[in-house]
Design a protein that fits this description.
Helix content: 25-40%
Radius of gyration: 24 Å
Strand content: 5-15%
Structural class: alpha/beta
Distance between the termini: 37 Å
Oligomer: single chain
Length: about 600
């Protein structure tokens, strides 16, 4: 199948834009790879320190003939998605020994849960944790005794941070090892209904708590299609998972076997073997375009509009908002998973999942097949699904038809002709909107604005009954320089109630929303942010703003000339719950249009 002309054009544009940084990056990786296996350059004393606690593996490590895997783990038992990783190091060490290699935990990285910190002060550290994760992984791998790496991470900032590190150490191979989604609990639409009833004051906190506990009830990733599960999709679309690894539930036989197989594959693709496949060869421009295609086809999280540019920059690839918007215009929406539909990721996986989507997108010429992956050359590997039989582990051809067309459809008969992510530009700056779950009649909102500098103040105004007409709610001073760019997802139930009352409402913010932003139109990541004196800081209550997702415009229709940008007292953003430690991050962070990164 001939490659889609838009996908081809965007790819060539990214290649041209990235020419200098990508060449410099590949030159660095080539020089590092020429040095050969890392341990060969360490003194005997250096190596003795590294192997002192390795017991029966000491002899193999000291002989320097067998590959050694470094494990970077994001384990903690507060995150349901990461709790299964507790015993992975021992499983990986055992699998490595059985395959003639060794493995060591190189280091741990922090992994915070946005579900715990939603609407809380701790959320102001969330985005910055991505860069901390990259730094922490870099420290772990800096011991320079590893021939490959296995990255154990799943959730929102963890996978992007690990990718930034994996690209930086791109001269060694790396595989990402997931833990899988929790089994299905309370349906997501019922959970959303209960939240809205609580926001209206119709039910008490005990009933809300019961519903939440029934939703998030066991080990594994949350089952809605938010940032964590979007990350898992990306790792397959970009060739860094084993095929079919993303959505197998924890503590199942197949899940356990996939972890063993990932270990074996990591050993096979080191420079000591015959199939050397460093991360730098995988994370090229085509891989990132495939990631963009997957993001649009699945209706994935808007948080990846921040993360993918930062991830790509680590590999010398420069992405821009126009790349997201143009790919979205060419790629149909093939999946309906909550919040874009009623199904969860387990239902999606059962309907055919990623293997069906990749197969179909390749057939339609919407993805690059000629890429390197951890499974081998060519994305066709990812049309195969893993299986366990009486004779052992293997792969078979994945589904080529959907098993439930209410959840998953082919590109020729999609839920929508476009992916649903639109770049917005106008006299208020640049931003994005995700419209895949927004009703078409709400793609254009023109209304007076109501200005807030804290999401809590917006909820207080709602509780006081102050929203009685069509309104565009502007929540500013929520960008990375202001307070670390926390998600404003806790506003979603409030705005959804207003919308259900028949009002036309929208959100405009220099902050961000999660992948669960849902049915309320939201212009997010608006840049330049208010703390940088961006045009959003010129708005006043009552100004008329027009958000038009159909034309990709975000305009204030009121004359803004002669105004001075509003100033906010941000002194309180610097203390409490660890915020003191991140002052340098707030001062040096880049704009959201470039990924809001600190270390790159």
């Amino acid at each position: 199948m001939t490659l889609n002309s838009t996908v081809d054009r965007v790819t060539e544009r990214i290649i041209a834009r990235s020419e200098g940084p990508r060449r410099a990056y590949l030159d660095r990786m080539a020089r590092a790879a020429e040095e050969g296996p890392r341990r060969a350059h360490l003194s005997c004393g250096n190596q003795a320190h590294a192997y002192a606690a390795m017991g029966d593996d000491k002899a193999m490590l000291a002989a320097d003939r067998a590959p050694n895997i470094g494990i970077i783990t994001a384990y903690n038992d507060m995150l349901s998605a990461h709790q299964p990783f507790e015993n992975y190091p021992e499983k990986i060490r055992n699998a490595a020994r059985a395959a003639g290699g060794t493995a060591q935990v190189a280091g741990g990285v922090p992994s915070m849960c946005d579900g715990v910190t939603q609407g809380q002060t701790g959320m102001e550290l969330s985005l910055f944790s991505r860069d901390v994760i990259a730094l922490a992984a870099g420290v772990g791998l800096s011991h320079n005794v590893f021939d490959a790496a296995l990255y154990l991470g799943v959730c929102d900032k963890i996978v992007p941070g690990l990718i930034m590190a994996a690209a930086t150490f791109g001269y060694i191979p790396g595989l990402f090892v997931p833990a899988g989604p929790m089994t299905s609990g309370l349906p997501n639409d019922e959970k959303a209904r209960v939240r809205q009833e609580f926001a209206k004051g119709n039910i008490d906190r005990a009933e809300l708590m019961k519903a939440e506990m029934e939703s998030y009830h066991g080990p594994g990733t949350c089952t809605f299609y938010g940032t964590a599960n979007t990350n898992q999709m990306l790792m397959e679309f970009m060739g860094l998972h084993l095929p079919g690894a993303s959505f197998v539930n924890p503590h199942t036989d197949l899940r356990e076997e996939l972890t063993k197989q990932a270990t074996r594959r990591a050993l096979e693709i080191t420079a000591l073997g015959n199939d050397y496949t460093p991360v730098s060869d995988i994370l090229d421009e085509k891989a990132f375009v495939n990631g963009l295609v997957g993001l649009m086809a699945t209706g994935g999280s808007t948080n990846l509009v921040l993360h993918l540019p930062a991830m790509a920059r680590a590999a010398g690839v420069i992405l821009d908002l126009e790349d997201f918007s143009d790919i979205s215009s060419a790629v149909p929406l093939m999946a309906k998973v909550y919040p874009n539909g009623l199904a969860d990721v387990n239902h999606f996986h059962a309907a055919g999942g990623l293997q069906f989507m990749i197969s179909n997108l390749l057939e339609e010429g919407l993805m690059h097949e000629d890429v390197k992956t951890v499974a081998g050359r060519g994305l066709n590997h990812y049309t195969q699904e893993p299986m366990l039989t009486d004779t052992g582990f293997g792969y078979r051809a994945g589904p080529t038809t959907s098993h439930n067309d209410k959840i998953l459809r082919p590109a020729s008969d999609p839920f929508a002709p476009q992916g649903g992510l639109v770049q917005l530009a106008g006299n208020l700056g640049r931003g994005v909107i995700k419209v895949s779950a927004v009703a078409p009649e709400r793609h254009i909102i023109e209304a007076p604005v109501r200005i807030f500098h804290e999401q809590h103040d917006c909820k207080t105004a709602f509780q006081a009954g102050e929203f009685t007409e069509d309104t565009i709610v502007v929540v500013r001073f929520q960008g990375p320089k202001s307070n670390g760019m926390p998600e404003l997802h806790s506003l979603t139930p409030t705005l959804a109630v207003l919308q259900d009352r028949g009002l036309k409402v929208a959100l405009v913010t220099d902050g961000r929303m999660s992948g669960a932003s849902g049915k309320v139109p939201a212009a997010i990541h608006v840049a330049p942010e208010a703390a940088d004196g961006g045009p959003i800081a010129l708005l006043r209550d009552g100004d008329i703003v027009r958000l038009d997702a159909s034309t990709g415009t975000l305009e204030c229709l009121t004359d803004l000339s002669g105004r001075e940008p509003a100033q906010a007292d941000l002194a309180g953003n610097g203390t409490g719950v660890g915020r003191e430690l991140f002052e340098m991050f707030r001062q040096t962070v880049g704009p959201s249009t470039e990924g809001a990164a600190v270390v790159l």
